[in-house]
Structure formats: structure tokens, C-alpha cells
Amino acid sequence: MPALFRRLPLPSPSLPLLLALLLGDVQAQPQQPPTPAAAALAGHDHAHGPDAGKGARPPAAPRAWTRYPLLQVQAGGERGSVNVRALNLPDASLRLLAPESTAESPVTAPATTLGPAGALLRPPSGQGNYHWLSARSETPEAVTVAGTAHYFPNPGPSPTGLLLLRKSELEIVPQPLPREHAAYRESEKWNFLVRFNGQALAGKDVVLETESGSRVRATTNSVGMATVVFPRDTRDTPAAGSHRPAAARFVLAVEHEADGRRYLTAFNHVYRKDPDRERSLGAGAGFLLLGMLGALPLLRRRAGENADATPPGAGHV
């Protein structure tokens, strides 16, 4: 009688097929939608050379990814200048403080009112390193301040003294700022001092929001220090030709009430992707590939055993 059932030998998988399946699976992973270019915000990306900032396009309108006030800083149309715009802070006055400033002798650019197009600023003394930018809006009932630190590429004094200076009633002070060519990074812990009228504020909640959608809360300790861990949530890929990891924007905010007045202060900057994220993915894919290659001889041996175990005439009734 014809065979009704027949035991078929297990086909032996090929190396090219396994490679195609593995690599195809890795490449088929959907790409996350990119966040806006973080270099458009106050950050550590700065141009070098005499033509830095020449021919720069007008800055794009800020995108409201947070309700807190923040500053957007981009290269200006003139060499050595920056264009500063405020978000969530109408009718604000802008102030730039140079790193060589002291309490007795602050070095500042002339204060200016921020309109829809922003304001064009350059270092008041021509020196580089971090400068402090702050925008302020106030009414009899409330004071709102947005601050950031922007790095100008020329040589200049350390910003340590600049951070110690009192710049507003309620402050968020980085302790410290990242060094040149360094940055805040995912998974890293950074300290920020919260003070009011120069005195540390204990037990204050500090809110961290990122443009990727994360929201984290930290509380200041007895000396007014809040420790923030940056989330692993950046989605950007680096710009073409850039050697820097992808980055995202963040804002820290704190609120306080005193003498019948409400105070809201925010500090914004950028943080970068943890390079180990990419290395971990590559290492995991490599180990998976090695495991599959190691299983090839076993699969082939089992396929051969299955074929040898089929007796002559098997499957015939």
C-alpha cells in the first residue's frame, strides 16, 4: 500500500541562513522618532574656528515640550554671538554674566527684553568658557526665572566663582558644570544646589523633565543639595559628521513661597546618550550569534541521527 505517513529527516540549517535571520532581525527593529536637535539649546556643543556662526539660519521656533520656563541658545548670525529665546516666559528681561564676575564687580552684557525673535548676545569681555544666562519675569505676586550656562569657545577663567554668585532669589546651581568636551550623560548622578536669598533650602522637591517625556523628582538634603540621575531615554542619532553621542534637552525646576510671593526657577541644559547602550546591544547580538554558530554541529548531528533511525520500508503498511 502507498505510504500514509513518512518520517522526514530534519533539514540542516546553513550558516548564511542563520546570519541572515540574525542580522535581519537586528536591522528590522523600528527606529525611535528623533527628538529635535539638542545643539539648538543651551549646551556644550560649540563651534570652533574663526567662521563659527557665519551664515547661520534663523533659529526655529521653540517647541513646547515642558510647561516650565527655559532658554534656547543658538549660534547667532555674527561671529562669536548667540541668539537667545525664551519659552514659557513672556515679557522677560535677559541678563548675561561673564565667568570673571565677582559680587563687587559683575561683568555683564546690557540687559535686554526678550521679544519673539529673541536677542543677540556676545561675551561682554571677549573671554570664553561658561557664561550664565538668565531671563526674569515678575509681577507683584510671582517671580519666574529661567537660567542656563552657555559655553563660549575662547579661553576664559573657570566658572567656579560664577556659580557661587547670587543671581536671583530662588536658584538652582549646578555643582559643578561639566568640563569642556564633557557633558551630562544618561545614568550619571549630578548634584544641584537649591538656595533662596543665598541660603540652602532643605526638603525641597526638584522636578526633572526631559524632552523625551521622562519626569523625575528629587528632594534636597539638609544642605540644599539634590542628586539627579539622568534617565536612559535619548532617542536621537548624532548629526551627520558629528563625533558626539546623541543628546536630549532637560529642565530642572523648583518652586517656593515667601512673604506672600510665589517663586519658580528653572535650569535647562542638555544630556547625552550613554555610549554603553550601543556597546551593550552589539555585545548581546555577538553572543547570540556565537551561540547559534555553536549549535550548528549539534543540529546537524541530530538531523543525521533522525535520517539513520528510519528503517527500510518504514511508513509502508
CATH architecture descriptor text of the largest domain:
Sandwich
How many independent structural domains? 2
Secondary-structure class? alpha+beta
How much of the polypeptide forms β-strand, as a percent range?
25-35%
CATH superfamily of the largest domain: Macroglobulin (MG2) domain
| Total beta-strand segments | 16
The CATH class assignment of the largest domain is Mainly Beta
Model regions low in confidence, pLDDT < 50 over at least 5 residues = 1-13, 15-32, 37-56
Query: What is the count of DSSP helices, taking H or I runs of 4+ residues?
Result: 3
Give a verbal description of the structure.
With 317 residues, the chain is an alpha+beta fold. It has 3 helices and 16 strands. Helix 1 packs antiparallel against helix 3. The radius of gyration is 29 Å and the shape is elongated. It has 2 domains: 237 residues, Sandwich (Immunoglobulin-like), CATH 2.60.40; 33 residues.
Present the secondary structure layout:
Layout: H1 15-27, E1 70-75, E2 82-87, E3 93-97, E4 112-113, E5 119-121, E6 129-138, E7 142-152, H2 160-164, E8 170-175, E9 184-185, E10 189-196, E11 199-200, E12 205-210, E13 215-219, E14 225-229, E15 247-258, E16 261-272, H3 276-308
Helix pairs in contact: 1-3
